[in-house]
Amino acid sequence: DNGIYYVKGATENVLKICSHMLVDGTLRALTLSDKDKILDRVAEKEDRGMRTLSLCYGGKMNSLVYVGNVGIVDPLRNEVPATIRDLHANSVTVKMITGDSKNIALSIGHSLNIHRDCDTALSGDMIDGMTSEQLADVINSVSVIYRSTPRHKMKVIKALQANGLIVAMTGDGVNDAVALKCADIGIAMGKGTDVCKEAAEMVLANDDMSAILEAVREGKNIFLNIKNFVRFQLSTSVSALMMIALTTFWNIPSPLNPMQILWINIIMDGPPAQSLGVEPIDSSLANSPPRPPKKQVVDRYMLIRVCLSAAVIISGTLWVYKNEMVDGQVTARDTTMTFTCFIFFDMFNALSCRSLTKSVLQINIFGNTTFLFAISASILSLFGLIYVPFLQTIFQTEALAFNDILTLICLSSTVLIVDECF
Q1: Does residue 71 contact residue 52 with C-beta atoms inside 8 Å?
Q2: Would you give the end-to-end CA distance of the chain in angstroms?
């Protein structure tokens, strides 16, 4: 009961519980004029980007003695301004939620280019006075939320999600765990609490904000690589299926024997398709907008390109088959020419599938070494089937002349040319 309270906190809250102040060692009453002067001095420090704390003490909690305030310089990490700038370039909107006062929040927001003059700032008390619908209506124009608590973070996340946005939230404390769990992507700091890390989908091991940007780019790249993989698999599978279906419908012998079909499906398609999944990040992704959350992997544009590539592959392969089978009898040369033609078509098709948005001439041919290795291994294995006697017996093939190989390469390259023109 006879103890002394020592209190620190936000100036406006500290002043509410102070009745006196200490001036040059002399105790006197704290007037409204004194409070205004104190708040003005604190505002000056906060405008310079300082975090402020006011200090007081006393024997009664509601009648303490105001001692003074301190300004704490908490400099931004060196990489943060560049990271915020790059996130904006990637069409990522950044909002700052802080427990600091309005002045310091806006000062930091301006220095990071998070807050512009046309943007809105909300306090935690203002959010408390809004309904969920009201907050959702204004939240897109809000860039800074100050004097907030974890409860306010939850409200902000739900308001943004109600507007159809994908929300990532960063945090490091136990109180942030619920907000991180509620967000679409929870991002915990490496030095944060274990509870926070457990609730998050992503942990910044070295607390480097630039890792968020790399994750955004990697996510875009993974989606594009999936599309490239699916496009290649669909076009080659449709080609093989329709080629067999058409020859069956026209009542002519199959252009490929079962061993050749198995080799195409398992060996020739697998490695090139897998290598398309590890295509390196394209620099143009840096400025590309985020895709709509409900955008399908297989869209109308992809289906058109799949059907176009499949049509070229089927037409070219069947033309070779018909041109070779002049006597109506299927020979080892006929199936070898058809088999080789289809595989060359596959290889050129894989090359065209490396990018949905860029020409082959615009991408770095040597940028994906896995792809080059897969294509090289596939072509070498093809030559083994054609020229190694033991394999010729198993796959019913025969050696082709150099002119035959050259002709098939020129013909199969049309799938790449048509795709480039499209």
Answers
A1: yes
A2: 85
Mean pLDDT, residues 163-169 taken together: 90
Query: What is the biggest distance separating any 2 CA atoms in the chain, rounded to whole angstroms?
Result: 117
**Nearest CA-CA partner of 57 in 21, 103, 16:** 21
- Rounded Cα–Cα distance for residues 23 and 287 (Å): 57
At 42-65, the pLDDT tens digits run: 988 888 878 889 999 998 888 999
Gap between the Cα atoms of 182 and 165, Å rounded: 13
pLDDT, tens digit, for every residue of 267-307?
777 888 889 888 888 777 666 777 777 778 888 888 999 99
**How far apart are the C-alpha atoms of 56 and 65, rounded to whole Å?**
5
Amino acid, res. 27: L
The per-residue pLDDT for range 180-229, each reduced to its tens digit, is 999 999 999 888 888 888 999 899 888 888 888 888 888 888 888 999 99
Triad 97, 100, 105: Cα angle to 5°: 65
Q: Edge-to-edge strand order for the sheet containing 26-29?
A: 5-9, 50-58, 64-73, 18-23, 26-29
**H/E segment holding residue 218:** helix 210-249
Report the C-alpha dihedral over residues 272, 277, 282, 286, rounded to 10 degrees.
170
Token look-up 């000056």 returns 44
* Token pair recorded at residue 34: 């004194």
- Classify strands 185-189 and 202-204 as parallel, antiparallel or unpaired: parallel
The contacts of residue 29 (CB under 8 Å, 6+ apart) are 19, 20, 21
Report the alpha-carbon distance of residue 133 to residue 131 in Å, rounded. 5
The whole-number pLDDT of residue 1 equals 57
